[in-house]
Amino acid sequence: MEVVLLPTPEDCGRVVADAVVGSVLPALARSGPVVLGLATGSSPLLAYQELLRRHRDEGLSLTGVQAFLLDEYVGLPAGHPESYREVIRRELTDALGLDPAVVHGPDGAAADPLQAARDYEAQLLAAGPVVVQVLGIGSNGHVGFNEPGSSLASRTRVKTLTEQTRTDNARFFGGDVDAVPRHVITQGLGTILGAQHLVLVATGEGKAEAVAAAVEGPLTASCPGSVLQLHPHVTLVVDEAAGSRLVRADHHRYVLAHKLASQGW
Ligand code: GLP
Q1: What share of the chain in percent tops pLDDT 70?
Q2: How far is the CA of 191 from the centre of ligand 1 (A)?
Q3: Ligand 1 centroid to 143 CA: how many Å?
Q4: Could you tell me the pLDDT band of residue 32, with boundaries at 50, 70 and 90?
Q5: Position 104 confidence tier, pLDDT thresholds 50, 70, 90
Q6: Can you give the pLDDT at residue 236?
Q7: CB within 10 Å: which end of the chain, N or C, has fewer?
Q8: pLDDT > 90: what percent of the chain?
Q9: Which atom of ligand 1 lies closest to the CA of 144?
């Protein structure tokens, strides 16, 4: 995988936006459906703001994409402001001018969430492959909502969150841990591996351990992010703080400084 170590979170946002645009625009030019995989959480926000800036100031258009989310809370009513479908509309897709009808996510409000998970997997497989999937990583190494212990081959299904993730995410629910749902529907790690290009972004010291485990640790379900080691095209974008535990940090800086112009992301 390519580890891109950059000075600031803003630099990370620009590179993630470059990587997304670099995968999506050529696919749009070839015509046919283009599936863009989106993540929620705070990590991709600067990248999304950069995409919106380019849309506003430089005429960037992602019209023609079908956007698919990684995951969703179970039990929040449709339209709840913290449901990931609403979050991504608010933070990205509405301002990009994408019709809500082309923004897809698991139906966390379904009466039968297990069936909703199977339906979402089928919908994604029918629409895909995902041309580029944006990812964050949890402080415990989770990707999507695949918590430690998740099968590396898993498909979209219902999962139970760890208390750590519920505590981490309580900030989006007014600090009230009890308001954070216990269950989620998440693309599986095997599902995520089906994307053609994975772009993971992590910033801040709080992610340093998870990033090091994912990049340099053993391939293990104990760190779901380590599954990226199996994928042929990963761009892992971190700021200095999130990359501070990487043993090979100097080599990553050296590779970046000597990157061939033709290499792209
Ligand atoms: C969340 C999401 C993940 C996200 C991760 C990190 O719970 N389900 O998709 O990558 O946890 O979140 P953040 O970027 O806010 O640190």
Answers
A1: 100
A2: 17
A3: 7
A4: confident
A5: very high
A6: 98
A7: N
A8: 97
A9: 9
Q: Which atom of ligand 1 is nearest to the CA of 70?
A: 9
Residue 143's pLDDT is 98
- Residue with CA closest to ligand 1 atom 6: 138
Distance 69 CA to ligand 1 centre (A): 12
Atom of ligand 1 nearest to the CA of 145: 8
Q: How far is the CA of 252 from the centre of ligand 1 (A)?
A: 24
Which pLDDT band, with edges at 50, 70 and 90, does 211 fall under?
Answer: very high
Region 152-163 average pLDDT: 97
Which of 12, 16, 38, 40 has most ligand 1 atoms within 8 Å of CB, for mutation?
Answer: 40
Q: What is the pLDDT of residue 31?
A: 79
Residues lining ligand 1, Cβ inside 6 A: 39-43, 70-71, 136-138, 144-145, 165, 169
Structural element, H or E, at residue 132: strand 130-135
